[in-house]
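Schema walk-through. Below, the input block comes first and the output block second. Nothing else is stored per chain. Lengths vary across the set, and this one has 382 residues.
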Amino acid sequence: MLAYNFGAGHPMSPLRLDLTARLARELGIFDLPGVSVGEPFVASDAELGTVHGSDYIAGVRAVSADPTATSEKFGLGTEDNPAFAGIHEASARLAGGSLAAADAILSGEVLHAVNFGGGMHHAAASRASGFCIYNDAAAAIARLLDNGVSKVLYIDVDAHHGDGTQSIFWNDPRVMTISLHETGLTLFPGTGFANETGGPGAEGTAVNVALPARTSDAGWLRAFHAVVPQLAAAFEPEVIVSQHGCDSHLHDPLTNLRLSVETQRQAALTIADLANTICGGRWIATGGGGYNVVSVVPRSWSLLMSVAANGRIRSNTPVPEPWRKYVKEHYGEDSPPMMGDGVELWWRSWEVGYDPNDEIDRTVMATRKEVFPLHGLDPWFD
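--- output ---
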């Protein structure tokens, strides 16, 4: 999976995957009872074709064979998406990881599956965007639907709007996409506002909470719990697919949200609880964005895997010393001593009341007013 490499200096460094796997191994997550580690396969053109156009796949293949043959039409060879030899195989392997997760869920072999190398949520049907070539989460959702799953809920907690996944299922009432992200007024891709609610016949299945820059733990958790559980219960999915980009962290260099690792872990815990309550535990989690590759990403995604594996790693668990030593020796950086950031989580529930003077509350209410009535919910009280 480290072959997904846009080159030195690019924010999407494969180092984040290597360090995450090393930390998870040191924490013993891969050795927990009931946990298996699978090898991702390279998705076929037919499998990619369930969510991407054949012309686009052919375009990626052409650039993969000759990186000088860049294609602005398909968003390849840009500053965000530099061309490199083997880009098709590398991108299709990330997609294969999420397809393998879907297959394991469908077979009943597992209830929870994690592809922390996935979450390429900006990739649209016929265009690369935002460091994303093939949309693995969308491919996994299509696999579930093609094999008898009636409805899938997609929850995206990346700091950036999950625009590619939303666009792919814009007209499909079987898929609800919920994205909580920094507002497009201050962050790429500039989309994801409350009035984006789905196409004809699928109204209310695209849900967007566009949070103001500098939103911190309490405000983010209030917004999440004011929108996601209510719609999840109303939609009644058979499987939840979630994207856990951790670029919402306070120390991420590319975004303006102010979350802690504790909040990112809490999001995973809540999504796991929703899966257990609503869809028999069936849950696929992916990675996504995350550009503080040493201090934040490995901790956040190791905690995600621990949640999925029903492990007992908490925010106050010490980071294993061998991992910290490895990071210091190889990258010259001091890593945090604990898995969390040492914060106490608290948030004001929506039941306490709506404050029209609060910018986050106004954002939440805008979303609830747009979407809740379409599902028989009252935007003020449910």
